[in-house]
Amino acid sequence: MEPGLGRRYLHAMGVPVWRRREANMDTEGPEETPPPREGVATSDTQRGPEMDHPVQRLPAVEQEGIGKLPSSDPDPDSVSQKATPDTLPDGEIEPPPQAELEVASGDGIAGMDWERLGATVASCRACELCETRTQTVFGVGNRQADLMIIGEAPGADEDRQGEPFVGRAGQLLNLMLAAIGLQREQVFIANILKCRPPQNRDPRPEEAFRCSPYLMRQIALVRPRVLLLVGRISAQKLLETDRPIGKLRGRWFVFGPDETPLTVTYHPAYLLRSPDQKAKAWQDLIEVARRLRKPEAEDSGAEPVG
Ligand code: URA
Predict the structure, then answer these.
(1) Is residue 158 part of a domain?
(2) For a disulfide at 224, which of 17, 148, 205, 218, Cβ 3.0-4.6 Å?
(3) In sequence order, which residues have a C-beta less than 8 Å from that of residue 37 and are 6 or more positions away?
(4) Cα gap 293→210, rounded to integer Å
(5) pLDDT, tens digit, for every residue of 186-229?
């Protein structure tokens, strides 16, 4: 990266001062109240660059589905529950796309290539969001990216343009990436949901569940070296936990059968409303950059990061 570029972007992000983090400063900030979509809950846990980051191993998430279902987990500290279709409530929703496609094609989403996956998402009617969307928002970027970013769901701009993170939050996300020397085109960006929830409400558990095979297939196809979850919804859905984002960021997890290193940061929409939190997001990004710089041979998910 060009010398000083990081600082200039940091300035553009509105981070006033760069302070070296001190080791072992686990603190929790205030929880954010949920915004009208482009937003995310917060509080925070900070760790210094010198300390060993314990890697939290999650149960391998199978490709068929993720997501916490309406019978929500009573233990906020629990990390993973495998979602299964028979725990869904009765309702008007059609069978999950995985089952439909297995019947239709003899194959499942987990075996699709990019082309079939894109076409399947574009015509998906697995939940009621298909009634209100303008178009699906599949995901964008480098399909062999080292870094994959996962947000929550399309907003109005994304629904209109068919691309994730193109509104104001997207512009800040671009700046955040630039701060660690990455262009938007170098990463792959997707969301938990492929369709915009009306009035930008939070994704419903069954919507995330129905949509999850698509995201799982995208992750499997990209095979990123690092997964970065932006925002509370993305973090809680993928990690299958109710823990606040402040307890999830600043740590490394391993995700899925490939044991992909995964970390969490604040949603750029939240940072737009709470610029005082940008320094923490910057710290998270620095950790992502450090992880990406590590030689691939040292990339085993079980390795402590740091
Ligand atoms: N917020 C998200 O989480 N995703 C988008 O694509 C846009 C805004």
Answers:
(1) yes
(2) 148
(3) 152, 153, 155, 197, 199, 200, 201, 202, 269
(4) 35
(5) 999 999 999 999 999 999 999 999 999 999 999 999 999 999 99
Residues 6+ apart with CB under 8 A from 65: 82, 83, 84, 85, 96, 98, 209, 212, 213, 216
The per-residue pLDDT for range 21-56, each reduced to its tens digit, is 333 323 333 333 344 443 333 333 232 222 233 444
Q: Ligand 1 in contact with 154 (CB < 6 A)? A: yes
- Asked if the structure places residue 149 within a domain, the reply is yes
**Overall pTM > 0.90:** no
- Which residue segment(s) compose the domain that 221 sits in? 101-299
The CB of 164 under 6 Å from ligand 1? The reply is: yes
Cα pseudo-dihedral 283, 287, 289, 295, rounded to 10: 170
Q: Supply the residue whose CA is at minimum distance from atom 7 of ligand 1.
A: 165
Residue nearest to atom 1 of ligand 1 (CA): 38
- Walk across the sheet containing 226-230 and list its strands: 55-57, 252-255, 260-265, 226-230, 147-151, 188-191, 140-141
- Sequence length of the chain is 306
Q: Per the structure, how many domains does the chain have?
A: 1
- Domain-located, residue 120: yes
Residue 268 in any domain: the answer is yes
Question: d(Cα 269, Cα 291) in Å, to the nearest integer?
Answer: 24
Top mutation candidate among 129, 136, 152 for ligand 1, by most atoms within 8 Å of CB: 152
